[in-house]
Amino acid sequence: MKVYISADMEGITGLVDAEDVQPPGRDYERGRVMMTEDVNAAIRGAYQAGATSVLVNDAHGPMRNLLPELLEPRAILIKGRPKPMGMIEGLTPEYDAVLCLGFHARAGVLGVLSHSFMGHEIEDIWLDDQPVGEIGLLHAAAASLGVPVALLTGDDTACAEMTAWDPSVATVPVKYAKDRFAAQLVPVAQARAAIESTTATALGNLPIVSADTVATHDLTVRWQSASVASHLPAIPGVKKLDDRTITVAATPMPDLYRLFCLFLRVATAVTSNPPYC
Asked: Is residue 35 included in any domain, yes or no?
């Protein structure tokens, strides 16, 4: 059994603030350790379930967060950016399951460190007219490859978002949102034990997902900046709906996810100047 882990940071045990998850935050280095140990718990659970290999993709921010020297040595790590497929770089149909570690709720939802991909830059995303964030897009992309999402860890809001997309996905809430930068924490040892045991159980009960890389989907993104929306229509197939909203229609999901990752790189370049105020 081949297992793929996409590791984000906002939903990691004990982390609640930008200082915990963004360099050079005063608690970022500690956050990196916490992130690595949550991932290690999932790796241990995967091998308990009979995994023969585990690939971990560092999927947060600079994508250089996980500490290789502390990572469980049975896992292989993808680190750094840019990556053509972003949070699912390296995921192929040969994998049997995806584990989402440390995920967060989408923009506009009151969850711990909630946002969609780019902090304030993305206000809303719709996949086939349904509101979506990082959780839903990853789930849809994995499903198109025929790989089921088996597990998600994060705050209770992120867990609820995944359950709404797919009730068969096991979830582990490691904290309970009190506000966007406040949470009631599950004790660290208890959270890690739950991640390990739930991973093992989830991988022992995988659903069958049929790959569908041909079915097409529509994606719409509303940006905070009109400047981003003005640049993206230069990409073939992208249309502008209004000053801040773009859409792309009838695109197979793997291609759509890769195209969205290109949107993020354009948006990063366009918004690289400090705010004018």
From this structure: yes
C-alpha distances in angstroms, 131 versus 38, 101, 112, 250? 28, 21, 18, 17
For residue 93, what are its two tokens?
């149909």
pLDDT in tens, 8-59: 999 999 999 999 999 999 999 999 999 999 999 999 999 999 999 999 999 9
Out of 115, 120, 217, 231, the active site residue is 115
- Considering the domain architecture, whether residues 229 and 185 belong to the same structural domain is answered as no
> Residue 120 — very low, low, confident or very high, per pLDDT cuts 50/70/90?
confident
Which of 182, 203, 224 marks a domain boundary?
Answer: 203
CB atoms within 10 A of CB 26: 9
User: Is 115 among the residues known to form the active site?
Assistant: yes
Q: What is the DSSP letter of 108?
A: T
State the pTM of this model.
0.96
Structure token digits, residue 25? 């935050």
Distance CA 17, CA 27 (A): 9
Write down the pLDDT at residue 277: 44
CB 129 within 8 A of CB 237: no
Q: Is 160 helix (H, G, I), strand (E, B) or coil?
A: helix
Domain tally, the chain: 2
228 lies in the same domain as 199: no
- Residues 68 and 160 grouped into a single domain: yes
Q: What is the pLDDT of residues 207-251, one digit of tens each?
A: 889 999 889 999 999 999 999 999 999 999 999 999 999 999 999
DSSP state string for 34-101? HHHHHHHHHHHHHHHTT-SEEEEEE-STTS--S-TTTS-TTEEEE--S--TTGGGTT--TT-SEEEEE
Which residue range(s) make up the domain with 152?
A: 2-122+132-203
Do 192 and 246 share a domain, yes or no?
Answer: no
